[in-house]
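Translate structure to sequence.
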């Protein structure tokens, strides 16, 4: 039976700790019993003091970190799949088709041009070259990346330009679930507003979004709900 629920992310009793091997094997529990759900059309702001585990939680939602216990379920092909227990090929398929992640810093293949980087996800989904080029050009223009830079790899770009290329590489696809780690941190007011608009358009289009935003104006402009992480750090 197909589940028609709007729940896109279901996190249950998540526990994540780090063992510090160079500190005598001390174990630091950063996330404890974290539980929440995100529905289509919601943008959840992760809040909490510095060090409370916001980035750790976001990385766990992308399966970059393996939690000690708990569930991180994501709706993929209309079925909630648990990223904690999913085999690697399933995690990669969920990332390719369902789960978009904008990290704080751009990580790209060297020597590939900016336009090719932004077109690539569309080509991988079978879009024709011309359509992909047009769509990538439209998004890069909207994000104010000058056309003179499109043929260059972004390695030498400014911090704000790299951040905008990073955003374009993810928002070029309509991911059903988006994870955003401070996507506006290096941006000026005008570009920040453009990114706010893009996030709101994705949400209005039905995406379920979880994000960390240190700028309170951005939080107010994109957030529909806040999930606050308590300081759960315990050393054992
Ligand atoms: N890879 C790691 N190895 C060991 N400890 C880690 C690791 N990643 C995070 N931590 C620990 O987890 C704590 C929470 O870090 P995290 O980056 O998730 O916090 P945050 O809430 O995102 O902080 P900020 O708002 O300052 O970015 C850190 O203080 C750190 O001690």
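Result:
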């Amino acid at each position: 039976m197909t589940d028609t629920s709007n729940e896109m992310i279901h996190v249950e009793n998540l526990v994540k700790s780090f063992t510090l091997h160079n500190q005598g094997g001390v174990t630091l529990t950063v996330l404890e019993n974290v539980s929440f759900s995100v529905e289509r059309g919601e943008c959840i702001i992760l809040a909490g003091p510095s060090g409370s585990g916001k980035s750790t939680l976001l990385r766990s939602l992308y399966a970059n970190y393996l939690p000690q216990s708990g569930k991180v379920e994501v709706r993929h092909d209309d079925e909630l799949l648990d990223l904690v227990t999913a085999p690697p090929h399933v995690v990669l398929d969920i990332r390719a088709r369902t789960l978009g992640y904008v990290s704080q810093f751009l990580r790209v293949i060297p020597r590939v041009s900016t336009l090719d980087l932004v077109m690539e996800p569309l080509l991988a989904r079978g879009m024709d070259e011309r359509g992909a080029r047009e769509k990538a050009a439209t998004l890069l223009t909207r994000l104010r990346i000058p056309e003179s830079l499109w043929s260059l790899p972004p390695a030498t770009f400014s911090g704000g330009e790299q951040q905008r290329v990073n955003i374009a590489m993810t928002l070029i696809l309509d991911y059903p679930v988006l994870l955003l780690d401070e996507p506006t941190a290096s941006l000026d007011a005008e570009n920040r507003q453009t990114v706010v608009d893009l996030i709101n358009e994705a949400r209005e289009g039905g995406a379920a979004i979880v994000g960390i935003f240190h700028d309170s104006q951005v939080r107010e402009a994109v957030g529909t709900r806040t999930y606050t992480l308590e300081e759960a750090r315990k050393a054992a």
